[in-house]
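Incident log, structure service

09:12 report received: a user says their structure output differs between two submissions of the same chain.
09:20 pulled the input from the user's history:
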Amino acid sequence: MSRPFILGLTGSIGMGKSTTSSFFMNNGVPVWDADATVHQLYGKDGAAVAPIAALYPQAIVDGMVDRGALREVLKADPAALARIEAIVHPLTAASRTGFIADHPDAPILLLDIPLLFETGADQVCDAVLVVSAPPEIQRARVLSRGTMSPEQFEMIRAKQLPDAEKRARADYVIETLDLETTARDVRRLIDQIREKPHA
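09:34 re-ran on a clean worker, output below:
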């Protein structure tokens, strides 16, 4: 029996991952979004709220995990990150497994995971797509959002696997220089994968 082809999508901050993910969705490919899942886990009645509240009650505001308060916790206690990850990673993995089980007949499933290689999630994928853009475009995109300072951007970039390493480990790479070309490359890749037999 054939099963869905599982394609992992990743890329550093500002590389066009969300846009690329939306092109897959527009082409009828179901998408599981790691960031959206964490957002849900942190939200009202989210599965991560109670276990985080038990460890760090100061990170909870109005029954939700407050990301700003959580950042303060992490700043004050470097060991907190491993404890938070020990709560969040199994919950996101369970959500991902459930998503795959819910789409047994889809030809392709896309797992949109920013830290795909860093968390070892590439192990559950049949192939990995990395989106990439030159460093100056990446920087300009992120800073034009107006949500972070150049220092914060550099700090996030430093925590992520270097773009060159991601590209080297990828099965497919899409350069996200303009929307039209990216959309065309996504359609081509979908066609290529659909034609490819997999166990």
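09:41 both user submissions now match this output. Likely a transient worker issue. Closing.
09:42 reviewer note: The mean pLDDT is 93. The two ends are 8 Å apart (CA to CA).
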